[in-house]
Amino acid sequence: MAKRVALVTGGMGGLGTAICRALHDAGFVVAANCLPNFAPAAEWVAKNKAEGYEFHVAEADVSDYDACKAMVAKLEAALGPVDVLVNNAGITRDGMFRKMEKSQWDAVLSTNLDSVFNVTHQILPGMAERGWGRVINISSVNGVKGQFGQANYAAAKAGILGFTKSIAAEVAKKGVTVNAIAPGYIGTDMVMAIKQEVRDSIIATIPVGRLGKPEEIGALCAYLASDLAGYMTGATLNINGGLHFC
Fold it and tell me: Which of 81, 143, 208, 245 ranks highest by number of CB atoms within 10 Å?
C-alpha cells in the first residue's frame, strides 16, 4: 500500500517543522509549504535530511487562492492525492485596535484565515470522493479566549474554529475528519527569542509552569492524522498547559 501524503502549510517554521517530523515518523510522505523563493528552504530541507527526514517542498503564498490551486495540482501530480492537510500557516501584526492599520488587519486575516479556505478548498473534495481524509487546523488559545492587542489574530483564529465545525459536519459521512488544535504558548525559536523577563512573566501565568514543546503539538497532529482518530471530528483540542480552561 502506498504511503499517505500529508501537506503542512507554514511547514518550515518551528511549529511546522515539529508537525512535519511527527507526520514523517508516523509514516506519511510529507510536503512542507513555504512562500515562493523562500531563501532558507534549501537549508531547511538539507538539515532535516541529515537528521533522517525526507521532506518535499510545496511553494505558494497561501493567501492567494490561484497560487494554492496551482500548488496542490503540482504536488498531487508528483506525489499523489493529499490525504492529510495541516493548515498551520500564520503571522502576527499585533497592536491596540484603535491604532491598528487596515493593512495589519488584512495581512493577518488573509494569511491566517483566508489561507485555510484557499488550501482546503483544493483538497477536501478529493478526500470526500476517496472516502478518507484528515484536515487539521491550527488555531490558538487566543482564538478561544481573546487577547489584548490581538484583535486581528484572535478574530482569524476564532474564525478557524467556526470553519472547522462547519466543514466537519459537511464531510462527516465521507470518512473525512476536520479538527482544530488551539495551542497555548509554545517554545518555538520565535518565543524563545523574547526577552527572558518577558518569557518568565508569560510562564508565570501558565498553571503547569512551562512553555509547551513543539513536539507535543506534532504528536497531537500525528494522532489526529491516524486511523485511530476516525471518531473525532469537529473538535477543538486545547493544549495550553492550563492557561485557559474551556
Answer: 143
Length of the chain: 246
Q: C-alpha grid cell for residue 5?
A: 501524503
48: cell is 532535516
The single-letter DSSP state of residue 236 is E
Helix axes 102-109, 151-171, angle to 10 degrees: 30
Backbone phi and psi for residue 57, each to the nearest 5 degrees, phi listed first:
-115, 135
Contact call for residues 116 and 157 (beta carbons, < 8 A): no
Sign of CA dihedral 63, 215, 134, 71: positive
Q: Domains of the chain (ranges plus CATH)?
A: 5-186+214-237 (3.40.50.720)
- Tens digits of residue pLDDT in 178-204: 999 999 999 998 788 889 998 999 999
Has residue 117 got a pLDDT over 90?
yes
Short-list 111, 101, 116, 134, CA closest to 26: 134
**Quick one: the chain helix, strand, coil %, rounded to 5?**
50, 15, 35
Q: Which three cell numbers stand for residue 59?
A: 511553494
1 has pLDDT over 80: no
pTM (two decimals): 0.97
Q: Could you tell me whether strands 82-87 and 176-183 are parallel, antiparallel, or unpaired per DSSP bridges?
A: unpaired
Q: How far apart are CA 35 and CA 41, in angstroms?
A: 9
Q: What residues are labeled active site?
A: 153
pLDDT tens string 29-75? 999 999 999 999 999 999 999 999 999 999 999 999 999 999 999 99
Judged on CB neighbours under 10 Å (0-12, 13-18, 19+), 95 is: middle
